[in-house]
Design a protein that fits this description.
Layout: H1 2-68, H2 84-116, H3 118-134, H4 138-170, E1 178-181, H5 182-199, E2 202-208, E3 212-215, H6 217-234, E4 243-252, E5 255-261, H7 294-304, E6 308-313, E7 318-325
Parallel strand pairs: 2-4
Antiparallel strand pairs: 1-3, 4-5, 5-7, 6-7
């Protein structure tokens, strides 16, 4: 019996060893092979990803060096995969677009200042020289000095307008914004210009509803004053007819819509976007006093307040529409 029991145990142990060997062959060895395969794939994938990342970084570095060298037209490549590098490249490209636009605008402003201020400065100098050569009496000296002061005042107004535009475009006035009634500003500006309009044979009519906006009172008043002043200068009706300027303000949805319209010759459609550029004066307006900065300031104030400025046909005349975000009632 003991011998039979020992043989039985031996047989069971052998069977268990066979099962263990079989499991080892079926599980352990394939698992080892899978681990080796995973390791190889991991190393290969790491090398691929590393090379791809380094390639993107090298591309960004090369583009950045080109931009730092002065070529602001360079942009970071976007592969279209939507990954973090693409999102970073898109954000940087948007920033570069803005920087390039600002630099182009700065160059244009510098060129315009050099060109458009040269004429009044030259005129001022010539009149001073003429006074030195030809003035012999106190009246002549006084007339020469008065003319010089007028020219100087004109230059100062030009520089003040440029400074206001620069501050508006830089957003420096946002800290001074408050909630205010745009309708009250429209009424005050119209009251200020009404006597001047009457002197020029024009009627100035106001229809302003109370609309609350968040903004800077001085800049909004100056923008509206520039629109009214522009209508007074260039919005005269045909010969023999009495001109009319209408200032209207109403709330449309979540916007305050301010319109200044006249019955003059208007502006050709192809020139309506160009007139808001600095120092731009159309051929029909060159014979009248002005610096070409009034509408530029209005457009800058509109952008500062998150609004827009547009021009349309008033049939006849011009309609200037200033749209600003209105406060929720």
């Amino acid at each position: 019996m003991q011998a039979a029991g020992a043989n039985y145990q031996q047989t069971v142990l052998e069977a268990l060893r066979n099962v263990a060997d079989t499991l080892r062959q079926l599980v352990v060895r394939p698992a080892q092979g899978a681990l080796v395969l995973i390791l190889v794939l991991g190393i290969a994938g790491g090398i691929f990803v590393t090379r791809r990342v380094l390639k993107r970084i090298e591309s960004m570095t090369a583009t950045s060096e080109t931009i730092m060298a002065g070529d602001l037209s360079g942009r970071l490549a976007v592969d279209g995969t939507g990954d973090e590098f693409d999102r970073l490249a898109q954000s940087l490209n948007t920033m570069l677009d803005r920087i390039e636009a600002l630099m182009v605008g700065l160059k244009e402003v510098s060129d315009n200042i050099a060109h458009d201020l040269k004429t009044p400065l030259t005129r001022l100098r010539n009149r001073a020289e003429e006074a030195l050569r030809g003035a012999h009496s106190e009246e002549e000296w006084r007339a020469a000095l008065e003319t010089t002061i007028e020219e100087s005042d004109s230059l100062m107004r030009t520089f003040d307008a440029l400074l206001m535009i620069a501050r508006a475009e830089a957003g420096q006035a946002r800290d001074n914004m408050v909630d205010l009634d745009l309708g009250a500003i429209a009424e005050n500006v119209a009251e200020l210009y009404e006597p001047l309009a009457d002197e020029q044979g024009m009627d100035l009519r106001v229809d302003a509803q109370p609309v609350e906006v968040h903004g800077m009172r001085e800049l909004l008043a100056q923008a509206l004053a520039n629109l009214v002043d522009n209508a007074l200068k260039y919005g005269r009706a045909a010969e023999g007819a009495r001109g009319e300027i209408r200032v209207s303000l109403r709330r449309v949805g979540d916007e305050a819509v301010l319109e200044v319209s006249d019955r003059g010759p208007g502006i050709a459609p192809q020139d309506r976007e160009r007139v808001v550029e600095r120092f731009v004066r159309l051929d029909t307006s060159r014979s009248r006093p002005g610096s070409g900065l009034g509408l530029s300031l209005v457009a800058a104030v509109a952008r500062l307040h998150g609004g827009s400025l547009a021009f349309s046909d008033n049939a006849p005349g011009l309609r200037a529409t200033l749209r600003l975000p209105a406060k929720t009632p």
